[in-house]
Queue: 2 jobs
Job 1
Amino acid sequence: RRRAAAAHAQAPAMTRDGVRIEVFANLASAADAGAAVAAGAEGCGLLRSEFLFLDRAAAPSLTEQREVYSAISAALEGRPLIVRTLDIGADKPAPYLPMSGEENPALGLRGIRLQLAAPDLLDVQLRALVTMEAQGPVQIMLPMVSEIAELRAARAALEQIAAEEERPCPPLGIMIETPAAALHAGVLAAEADFFSVGSNDLAQYTLARDRTNPHVAAGLDALHPAILHLIQIAQIGASRHGRLVGLCGGLGADPEAIPLLIGLGVRELSVSAGSAAQTKALIRSLTLEQCGTMAEAALGLPDAAAVRALVRAELGKIV
Ligand code: PEP
Ligand code: MG
């Protein structure tokens, strides 16, 4: 029985009507890649590269980064690896970064903004990713994009580095975690190779609730219908250019969110390794039609609680 369950965890997840939903893992270190594969992850949908940069006096060198990314790719044994470039800001200071105290770090110099303000740092990270030993496909993902100029600047740097190193240019995608990126997705998709919804920050910025503030974070539910609308708009924009939409925020492992995300057109979910098997199991119990009907209904509901009640009731009839 244990062997059968393990084989099932490794199998791809299809809906009952045969639509493949990729289930990837979020990783935050080199050590957890092997465990994620064992748990059924089909790749890494979000490598939070911050772990390489925090709690140290100097930024990691080109060689160090290259070795760590190569080791993670090796542990994934040919499966895809999506590396998010450095996503820190004034709330997680590092002595070698151009940061000062900020009144409002969530709206400050962070994510792609910080990287463009520290081009040497971005150069080293992109160069490590372009020259790493890849055992499988490697894709690069930019955090906190809100302006197409940010994507263009990062792509120009990446193309120049790839040319200098005489290596192919990896696909470059963006996170959809600001309302601007979601609303403007149709234009961004012309130049971004893929999207991944960061539902944690998308909820924070859409609902204007600081995710780190205990007084308001409890009311932060990414199943608010306003956020479902933003994901729908992002998906429509992406599909205009044939781009895939994944999701790597906490919503991806939430059973009450999974049918809605599939119904809205999300085709890759990146979750914590421990949630991969149960996420796949839920996907296998659904049809695309059920998901679409639930998503359509959810968009018209008054609040997140009503959305959750709807999905619970529908899942009660299915599983
Ligand atoms: C997100 O914002 O949903 C996300 C995946 O990124 P992080 O949680 O690292 O900000
Ligand atoms: Mg985020």
Job 2
Amino acid sequence: MRIKRLRIAGFKSFVDPADLRIEPGLTGVVGPNGCGKSNLLEALRWTMGEASAKSLRGAEMEDVIFAGTATRPPRDFAEVSILAELPTADGVEETEIVRRIERGAGSAYRIDGRDVRARDVALLFADAATGAHSPALVSQGKIGAVIAAKPADRRAMLEEAAGIAGLHVRRRDAEQK
Ligand code: ATP
Ligand code: MG
């Protein structure tokens, strides 16, 4: 999977819609402390289905919505869109994944304009060997956590990296039926 574009509106410090094209190769995000570098990565992780507000440095999920500043009022919703290129049997295909949260209404997900469940988004990224908990996304302070991880947790990281994490979700589903 290759992420081609990230569109962020009302998420944390990204109050005005921001459109980021991500070119092939290595991308660096640089800027002074507090300018929003971690928020950018969190927007990506959030859209991939991150369910823990704490791991997004908030108390509740609604804390990701722009909370206002001295000069700007707070927003009522946050929306992030990922345009990704996914491999198919005969080439690649573009897919847009959108997550939106509204105050008092919770999160909603769309894949290519269709309303879907959080688990559909999680499966899409699990099959592509990436996702909210992918070892490809290393947050500040995460290195220490990897070193201190229990073997079972480390196995989960390896399975995610190997692209087989989605199989466990499907097996649990099958066992319940
Ligand atoms: P560092 O270099 O220190 O790691 P950074 O570039 O990663 O900094 P972030 O942590 O991404 O910076 O951004 C922090 C900023 O985001 C703070 O100014 C904080 O007030 C702002 N912020 C976080 N959540 C919200 C929110 N819900 N609404 C408005 N601003 C927010
Ligand atoms: Mg940071």
